Amino acid sequence: MAAKLGGLKGGKYTIGQNADINVTPFVDVMLVLLIIFMVSAPLATVAIKIDLPPAVPTDNPVLKKPVYISMKDDGNIYIVDQATTLDTLQTGLQRAFSETDPRHETILIRADKNVRYGDFMSVVNQLQSDGFFKVSLINEDLSAV
After folding, report:
1. What distance in Å separates the CA atoms of residue 129 and residue 22, rounded to the nearest whole number?
2. Contact in structure between 127 and 107 (CB atoms under 8 Å)
3. Is the pTM higher than 0.70?
4. pLDDT tens-digit profile of 57-89?
5. Number of helices (H) and strands (E), helices first, in the chain?
6. Which helix (H) or strand (E) holds 56?
7. Burial 39-73 (b: 16+ CB within 10 A, else e)
8. How many angstroms separate the CA atoms of 105 and 69, rounded?
């Protein structure tokens, strides 16, 4: 703590206390700690060596045609180009995928902008109840507008 000698209110030898905080030592300590952490931080990173296989693309990638569900604003539901209903949605998807277990395939859904949200969610709920959990949504490219 610092002391103030002399002053206006007292005599020549009156000692008053100075309540100002001296922050210079605090700043010095903080700068030293900053430099220590800046030097030691790169040394603390641990490099783990992993032997990854080389990235070689397959010669003939199998490109599957995507299966998508289209919803019109009048309530019609289509699987690719075939009209369907909520009751026949599962059998229509099994025919469209032409696989024994199409539940692991991704289904794309696209809908008109005037389709009611309840109708859209009924299709999504029907897909989930039928066991199709990989569902993606198709939207228009908003950057082109």
Report:
1. 70
2. yes
3. no
4. 777 767 777 888 999 988 899 998 899 999 898
5. 3, 7
6. none
7. eeeeeeeeeeeeeeeeeeeeeeeeeeeebbbbbee
8. 13
